[in-house]
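Forum: Protein Structure Q&A
Topic: Joint prediction for protein chains with partners

I've read a bunch of threads here and the consensus seems to be that you should model interacting components together rather than docking separate models afterwards. I'd like to see that in practice. Below is the full input, 482 residues plus whatever partners are listed. Could one of the regulars post the assembled result?
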Amino acid sequence: MSYALAVGDFVSTDTAKPTAGRDRIFYGLVLLNAVCLVATLQIIFLKAPVESTMGIVQKIFYFHVPSAVGMYLGAGACFLGSALYLAKGDLKWDALARAGADVTVVMGLMLIISGPLWAARAWGRYWTWDPRLTTSLLNVLIYVAYTVMRSFSAGGEAERKFAAALGILGTANIPIIRYSVQKWGGQHPRVITKGGGGLSHPDMKLALMMGFVTFLLLSVVLIWQRMRLHMAQTQVEALEQEALELGIAGD
Amino acid sequence: MPARKLLRWHEQAWLVFSKDLRVELSNGEITTTSGFFAVLVVVIGSLSFYGGPDAPVLVAPGVIWVAVAFASILALSRTWQRERENDALSGLLSLPLSRSAIFVGKALGVAGFVATIEVLVILPTLLLFNIPPGPVLPGLLVLCVGATPGIAAAGTLFGAMTVRTGARDLVLAVVLFPLLAPTLLAAVAGTRELFMETTQAALGDYVMLMSMFGFIFVTGGVGLFGSLIEG
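Posted by a regular:
Agreed with the consensus. Here's the joint model:
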């Protein structure tokens, strides 16, 4: 019954006393994030002035740019979790990697959906092969591949290790992708001139700052929450396995 | 692991490579099927993208590298399928061979297939798109040398996934294409500049970029393969 003992150890070390304090911090962050979110929406839509040339569409900017930060934060978490999982073999690092990839996909989708909406108005076209756009798209695709791989494979150790390899190599690619698309960006029309329609009014700068704070918090909260979820899933699977071996499983 | 190694590292890698080579030479299955498939992609591609006399320079680079990518995936899933059948991989792993040498040996085999595919793709593409081969062939050779290590190393590393895990060829394609996209983009952009007969100096930049991706995948493969394959 050494296996059952191992499962017992696993469950007790990760769910008992220390989590009470961690829970408090987690729900505190959720609350803080909720307050920030409401405040940010308030500033973006009611306080910051409507930009003169772009009109209301310019407000996409306050969501678009912070979501890029969230995307890279998620990618960083995925890289860190993958590397630590391969080095230490602790399941919590695998959960972190998975959570990071989940958040990268969500934030990345937000980025590449809100981007074209803004661009349609600002540049008169939805998509251009601008270096920044290409980098983001390729980056999102890597993490979509990661989540697809995780969703449609059994949760064995080999699966986790190959996913970790993808997490490491995928993230290691990002800086070079960034550099290289800039290199061949010269061939494509460069419409972007950055500056984002000019944040002339101080309230606009405040709105963007609040956007950054809120999205950073949101990403952290989401990564943490997904990590808890994946940990719980692994524990349930381990317990089910244990129940099967003891012959007390329902079906 | 025995206390005394029987073969040196490069001899081990060569042993694995020559095993794959001998299996392939005995029936030529992978070369024939993936090579013919690559030619088919070229024909379909040149039919679908035909856009008049000015198109070749713009379209042909894409046709070349899309065909190489598709056919390479086929070839490398077949090489790993050979290790999966009859649990051949367990036999390979039970030999006193260093894991990184097994990786390099397998990757060399895959690189051989990719190189064969590249030759089989480039010649008919040049023919179908009416591009005189003389001036572009040396440049294409350089681009192929730059692109192949990355494709082979990443493909070999994640190809092992189809043996060790429940994931099969479709998942392999899904994982591999986003990772290889930058390499393929660099290859396409480089080939286009080559066909446009602009400066040859730019070619060096693209090869350098592909080599950086290749370096990441080769070092990542050599470093990670051991722990991934033990499962």
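The interface with chain A takes residues 154, 157-158, 160-161, 164-167, 171, 174-175, 177-179, 181-182, 185-186, 189, 192, 205-206, 209, 212-213, 216-217, 220, 224, 227-228, 231 of chain B (CB under 8 Å).
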